[in-house]
Every structure is written in structure tokens, then in C-alpha cells.
Amino acid sequence: MDGVARRLVERDRAVVWHPYAAVGPGARGPLYPVASASGVRLTLTDGRELVDGMSSWWAAIHGYRHPVLDAAAHAQIDTMSHVMFGGLTHEPAVALCETLMAITPEPLRRVFLCDSGSVAVEVAIKMALQYQTGRGRPERGRLLTIRRGYHGDTSGAMAVCDPDTGMHHLFTGLLSRHLFAPAPARAFADPFEDADAEPFAALLAAHAHEVAAVILEPVLQGTGAMRGYAPGWLARVRELCDEHGVLLVADEIATGFGRTGELFGCDHAGISPDIMCVGKALTGGYLTMAATLCTEEVAEGVCSPPAGAFMHGPTFMANPLAAAVANANLGLLLSSPWRETVRRLEAELAAGLAPAADLPGVADVRTLGAVGVIETREPVDMAVIQPLLVDLGVWIRPFGRLVYAMPPFVTSTADVATLTSAMVEAVARTTG
Ligand SMILES: *Cc1c(COP(=O)(O)O)cnc(C)c1O
Q1: What is the CATH number of the domain that holds 392?
Q2: 313 is in an annotated binding site
Q3: 330 or 167: which leads in pLDDT
Q4: Which residue is closest in CA terms to ligand 1's atom 3?
């Protein structure tokens, strides 16, 4: 690292907090100053270029500094960056909601724009509870979910994250007590039988009288597991929710916008949720924005007495700058051959990561859509594997026992090969 980079890291270490990180003497692992990013490459201040395998956490699907997205941001900033959304509206927000309506399953009819994924989940939970109250069932105040889920870091969302690997033990006084069924046992490509969903069905049947909604990540559990599950299982959950008058909330924040090979995870099962959350790739990784969509039936329940309106309204709701970039981003996505692209990435990730399956320190290698995962037997040592990956010319950010890539859709065959060979080599040299 050169002098400029070292000084920036020192200044950072003095005052800045990073995600899921300690500060002070407990701060661990390296920190890399980025000077710029373009296409699928991050350029560090010392001039090194890294092939990005993370899409900035599922978001930058078209890569960095895309000319169309840059132009949309410039045009909007010259018009207005932000105005409040109470009592005012604007073209970027209306157009975005219309597009979301058009591309999501038909029964979803209303869009609430939020500032981040976690907030979209909070909004979904509040909608579900207000709906049940509005329909005269205020006793239905709990949520039911599956283990190994991840739904965000705010308190409502944290309460439905996996109770063991999530943060429940740290915040017991704050978090509502919800119901947790086992994670689906069958992998994505495995055949599904109704009996597989029996533990879920039994838990729901026993508690339906007090459950407002089931919330889960459709077909791919992201941050909590990086694991796909059988679409038939999701279809069965939809049936069971209908049987018991319980809403289904699909958290598509990671799975949305093509990442799993369909536009939305629910599309694999041919189902429609009552409430859907999208985020992450919504603005192509440019700005923070998310959305919560619901059916007309849910909207009517929410707007019934006693509340009469939906009780939420962030300061930066429907930020025009984010909405304008989101419109450009969805335009790019929908006019691209995204399905073929994701299929190609899936095949290339699978082929490139396959050699890892023979390594003694590796428990599993799997791919679903443009997500490739090496699961190790022991947690990786970030202080060792992170610099090794950077030396190999890639930006891959493992956590726990998961070394995974979800590259931008614009990644070339050669760059996918760089990512996968670096992942296999880094795992080979640091495990087993
Ligand atoms: C990332 C994520 C969230 C939280 O989104 P933020 O924008 O980080 O608040 C919620 N649900 C899922 C499935 C996610 O992957």
C-alpha cells in the first residue's frame, strides 16, 4: 500500500465504523481504499484493478459507471434531487411504480417506496399487521418464517432473521417473538413432495390464529445461507397460507431482478405473494431505494378502520434521483437478454467452481442463477483469505463458511474465469 492509501486507512481507523465490524484495537482484517470503479473493475488507490464478484452486495447488476445510469443521474440532478413526497408527486416516482407493477405478478397493485431493504421489510410487516387489524383480527400479531433467513438489520427485520446465526441473543428485550419453521431440506433442483413441507404446515396450523403473515426469501436464502430450495416448497407455502388466511410476504430484495434466473424468485414457483419487497438491484447499485408492493385486498385492509391509512412515511421517500436511476436501470435490464445472460453466468460459475468440490476443506459447491458458492467446512480466516483474494486480482468478500460470488450481469466469460479460479485457489490455500 502506498503512502496516500495508508494515510486514508489511518484516518478511517480513527473515526469510521464499517459493516459488522469492531472499531479500535478489536478492528480486524484489511481495508482497501478504492479510487474509482468502472464496468466490473474496482481500482484501488495504489492502481491495482480488481474484478468485482460481489456487485456491491447484489446491487450493481450493470457494473459501475454505466453510461446510461450516469446520464440518468446527471439529468435528474439538473432538474431536482429531492422533494418531500407528502402532498407532492413527480414523474420518476410514478414511472417507477408503474414499471414495478408491470413486471411483478399481476395481483400486486400498490407500491410503497422505501429508503432501504430493511425499511421495506419493516413496511411489509406493518402492512401485514395493519391489514389483519383492519380486517377485525387484531390478535393476529405474530410472524412465521423459516430458519436461516435474512431480512435486514432493523429491529422488525432482525426479529425474523435466523434466531441462531442472527442477532437475537444480543437484543432479546427488543425483538418480537416470532415462529420459526425448519429451513426447507431439499435443494433447488431436488424433486419436491408435500411431506417435505410437513413441519412448516404443522407449525402454521398450530399457530394460524395468531399469525399475520409468513415471511421468507423465495427459492434462495441469501445472506443467512446462500442456498436455494425447491420451488415446489414455495408453492406449497402459498397454498397453506391461503388455507389459513395468512398473508405471504416474499422478500425479493436479494432474489429480485433476474439474479436467480427468473425476474423474481416467486416466478420459479409460479406464485404471487400478498406483499413483496424489492431493493438491492433496484437502482443498479447507484443509490439506496427499495419498495414494498401489495395486493388491492391488502391495501383495502390496511386502509380500513381503525387506522384508515398506512402509517409510514420516510423523509426521503421516493427520492427523485434514486427513482430516475432505478427507471434507467430497469429499462436497461428489461431490454437486455437477461435470462440468457444469467444462464451463461450460472454455467460458467458452476464449471469454474467445480474443482473446489475435491478440496478436503470444502463441504459443498453450488450455483443458482448468477450466484456461485463454495461452502467450507470451517469458517475462513478473513485476515488471511481477504488479502490473498486481492492479490489474485478479485473482489470477493467471504463470510463465515461461505466464499461466494454474485457478479454483475455484464461480467465477461474471461472475468468469470478470473473470479472462479481465484476463489478456488484462495480456498485451496487457506483450508483443509
Ligand atoms: C440485504 C437484504 C435486506 C436488507 O436490505 P438493506 O438495504 O441492507 O437494508 C433484506 N432482505 C434481504 C433478503 C436482503 O438480502
Answers
A1: 3.90.1150.10
A2: yes
A3: 330
A4: 152
